[in-house]
């Protein structure tokens, strides 16, 4: 009698294809946006509470840590949008071939990063 044992998968050793990586990042970006909602609500409430609350909320954005978190949230929004459009197109049956799927996955990654750089360059938040 042969007993089958559970197989341990070392997820750090598995080489994922780029479409799988984009899919995972799409889910991570969605979770980041959901987690940002209560933080944004508290900051919004604090900013509307009065001049002192607004000054406190505005002062938070002078920290490099908050600027990095804001850049992460902007990337999260942009990546989720671009990858979501890619997935909608895939759901229509377009771009399912392996080379096209890889190309669109790379395009989604690069477009989200390029859009993040454009937002940072054009916006005054990070100065």
UniProtKB/TrEMBL annotation:
Q: Which InterPro entries match?
A: SQR/QFR_C/D, Succ_DH_cyt_bsu_CS, Succ_DH_cytb556, SuccDH_FuR_B_TM-su
Which SUPFAM superfamilies does this chain map to? Fumarate reductase respiratory complex transmembrane subunits (SSF81343)
Q: Which cofactor names does the annotation list? A: heme
Q: What residue intervals traverse the membrane?
A: 20-44, 64-85, 105-126
Supply the alphabetized keyword list: Heme, Iron, Membrane, Metal-binding, Transmembrane, Transmembrane helix
Compartment(s) where it occurs, according to its Swiss-Prot or TrEMBL record = Membrane
Topology relative to the membrane: Multi-pass membrane protein
- One protein family per Pfam: Sdh_cyt
| NCBIfam families registered for this protein in UniProt | succ_dehyd_cytB (TIGR02970)
Q: Whom does it interact with, and what assembly results?
A: Part of an enzyme complex containing four subunits: a flavoprotein, an iron-sulfur protein, plus two membrane-anchoring proteins, SdhC and SdhD. The complex can form homotrimers.
Query: What does this protein's UniProt record list under function?
Result: Membrane-anchoring subunit of succinate dehydrogenase (SDH).
What family classification does the UniProt entry report for this protein? Belongs to the cytochrome b560 family.
Q: Please identify the protein, giving its name as recorded.
A: Succinate dehydrogenase cytochrome b556 subunit
């Amino acid at each position: 009698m042969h007993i089958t044992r559970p197989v341990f998968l070392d997820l750090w050793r598995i080489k994922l294809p780029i479409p799988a990586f984009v899919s995972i990042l799409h889910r991570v970006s969605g979770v980041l946006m959901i987690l940002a909602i209560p933080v944004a609500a508290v900051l919004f409430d604090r900013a509307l509470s009065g001049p002192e609350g607004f000054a406190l909320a505005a002062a938070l954005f002078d920290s490099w840590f908050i600027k990095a978190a804001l850049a992460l949230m902007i990337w999260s929004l942009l990546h989720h949008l671009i990858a979501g459009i890619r997935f909608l197109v895939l759901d229509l049956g377009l771009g399912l071939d392996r080379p096209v799927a890889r190309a669109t996955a790379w395009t989604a990654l690069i477009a989200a990063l390029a859009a993040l750089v454009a937002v940072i360059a054009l916006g005054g938040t990070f100065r």
